[in-house]
Amino acid sequence: MNQTQYNAIMNDICRKLEVEDEWRKKSAGKVCCRCSTPLPGPYTFRSRQCERCAPPGTRPIKMCFELKVGWHCRFLEKDQKTTVGSCFIFRDPASIRTLAERGLGFVTGNTRRAFEHAIKRGRGGIWLQLTEEQYRILLATQVTGTTSNGEPGAGST
């Protein structure tokens, strides 16, 4: 093997390592999954978007879900401590999937796969990008204890 071939092989290996490192950072939530801008902690170990790439006029809210007697969903602010709205209880995971789709939770294919894996495990969470109207409706459930259309299903567990 001559020096030119050796350099070509080493360059190829370095490029692959850089791509893997970038993918690892995106999967860990350390950089934006769209523009690769470094993101502040806490890291979620899921793909995230920076404020510039997130849809305008949206608010990041984490939806956590767990299978108990039905699927229990709760929502947390960006600090992951402050609860928003009431706990919702659903019969099947299709409702949770619909919430994730409407809340722009499936940013990448990896996010969708991680979500489906969490459903199979029976618990997990996903970051949503709620519009101001969706956020207001979620806040209203905290006060009234019902969903926006008046159906029971929201309230304390």
Q: Give the termini separation.
A: 69 Å
Q: Please give the number of β-strands.
A: 5
Rounded to an integer, what's the Rg over CA atoms?
20 Å
Helices and strands, in order, run as HEEEHHEHE
Overall, the morphology is elongated
Described by strand count, sense and barrel closure, the largest sheet is: 5 strands, antiparallel
Strands of the biggest beta sheet: in what spatial order? 4-1-2-3-5
Strand content: 15-25%
Q: What structural class is derived from the secondary structure elements?
A: alpha+beta
Helix count? Answer: 4
Helix share bin = 25-40%
Q: What number is the mean pLDDT?
A: 77
Query: Which regions have little confidence, pLDDT < 50, spanning 5+ residues?
Result: 144-157
Written description of the protein model:
The longest helix has 25 residues, at 3-27. This protein has a five-stranded antiparallel beta sheet. Mean pLDDT is 77; it is low at 144-157. It has a domain at 58-155. The protein is built from four helices and five strands; from the N terminus they run H-E-E-E-H-H-E-H-E. It is elongated and about 70 Å long. With 157 residues, the protein is an alpha+beta fold.
Characteristics:
5-stranded antiparallel sheet, 24% strand, 5 strands, elongated, alpha+beta, 157 residues, single chain
Give the structure's gist in a few sentences.
The protein is of the alpha+beta class. It contains four helices and five strands.
